[in-house]
Amino acid sequence: MLLLMASAAWATTVGPTESLAAACAALSDGDVLFIEPGRVVEADATDASDSCEIWGVSGVTIQSAGTELADVGGITVMASAKVTLSNLRVGASSYDANVWVVQSSLVALEGLHLSESTELGVYLFDSEVEVSDLVADVELLDGDAFMYIGRQPGGSHGETYVVDTATASGPGARVEVVGRPTTSVSLTDLSLTGGRGGRESDDKGGCLAIDGHSTSTSGPQVLLDGLTLKECDAFKGGGLSVSMGEVTLQYSSVTGAAGEYGGALHMGPFAKLTLSDVTLSGNTADSSGGAVWNEGGALSGESVHLSGNVAPRGAVLAQTIGEVTLAHSTVCSNQVTGFEAGAGTVASLHGGTASFARSEIRDNGGGTALFLLENSAGLELDHVSLWENDDDLLFGIQDATSAVKVRGSLLSHAQFGSVGFGLAGGYNLWYAVGTPAMGTSLPSTDTVSAEDPGLGLWPSGADCSIPLHPDAASPLVDAGDPARDPDPDGSVEDIGAHPYEHPVDTGDSGDSGDSGDSGDSGETGETGDSGVVETGTPDTGVQAAPLLLGGCGRGANSGAFILGLGLLLLGRRRLGV
Fold first, then answer.
1. E strand or H helix that includes residue 5
2. In 355-507, which ranges are continuous DSSP H helix?
3. What are the distances in angstroms from CA 244 to CA 120, 216, 249?
4. Which of 127, 128, 292, 423 could bond 105 through an S-S bridge, CB–CB 3.0 to 4.6 Å?
5. Confidence band for 463, pLDDT divided at 50, 70 and 90
């Protein structure tokens, strides 16, 4: 701030009883305005003398004169640039919002507390804004939002928004984002609790709603990092709704949210959503999609944990059309309940496709089918461990045009499907006690067995955090398709979500003093095809590790050189050379 003051054209301090409006009206480029704490702002926050309007200026800073928050009425920044608002408690203005930023660039909102509002907290429109450490203590109605980020269809100003660390609770703990593909939004470390988007049929996103303009089929580019959405509620997407746009959600959680369709997430037909390290847990849908309701979007996820979600249809996923792909994820302890119980505990697919790869699906149930497919829906399971699910059927197939492909998977179930049809894939192990009622013919490479699959530490009802790793004696080990890529340790692929890690064979160390092919001291080896003469090493009694030598010649000197070079490089790295 000392640097700012040194370059400022003018700096002044406004006392608790002085007119803030007059001081703001007098601001010019580069000015700094300090506001002393202790100002009393009327409850309706519409007193013009307590508000601040900034028009057409650049390089202006407004901040508290002390370490405490300074109270002000609403603040409006219009057609300005490089404006900083810092350490202020902001009430509502006559514009029905605490802070308005419109058609401005490089605006920074730092450490603001929103004390009250009537419809909006922060309104960011057609601008470039960075927000940090925002706290919203506002009482809003269902459907209102403490932050609106938008852009008009024909806007020409900057459109980049960065929000880092914001907290809000109550019905107005919602953020709305509306934009075009050129709109860039980054929301990091947001904690929103209890947001209410409304329960009318077009209400979406209890705590966060992302959409495009009605004149477009594409929306904004949004990064969501470190979000915590709790106890949110809306008709579609109790926690989050993405109607349009390309959105990445990472290192985040949606818990305890509720909706009519999609307790945690809703996706529209023009939505693309990518999940990474995300938890969707304890969410509820009154009709379909306890965790996810998809109306035509494309969802892909890696390391997604779905547990404790509940709905009459599709406790995890309900989909009319679209595609969902999950990999390296856990689907555990989700239940269907209610008047339509049984219609696809994990997935109720009325169309589109869903695929699960390298994932665990276990301890789910409550109905008649784990997966329900109709209207030519498609399902693919690739190296999935299905275990301890208690639905009557594994697949409920409503029409012969639906397709199921299962390969390299462990399936623990006695009932296969409701109608007979061809099953694509292969190299699966069906674990069943007694004679299973499969309902179809299996690929010739599949195995039906009552042999213990050898899942090691897994006891019945164990915590979902304990992975289903096979032990060394498991029939799953090296039982996959030998024509496909091997497991990471180089062995034939295993069946199930997690491969067994074979012990590394270091070879027979031999008798003491036997150096293998290294030859006697000073003996010259054979000349290779490259014309390089390989020189042997003395018989030291220590055998070189084959993995360290890496096939760089038969003589031990080449291996020693590589090892020495590696140690030298390691030493240089540690010394920062």
1. helix 2-7
2. none
3. 22, 9, 14
4. 128
5. confident
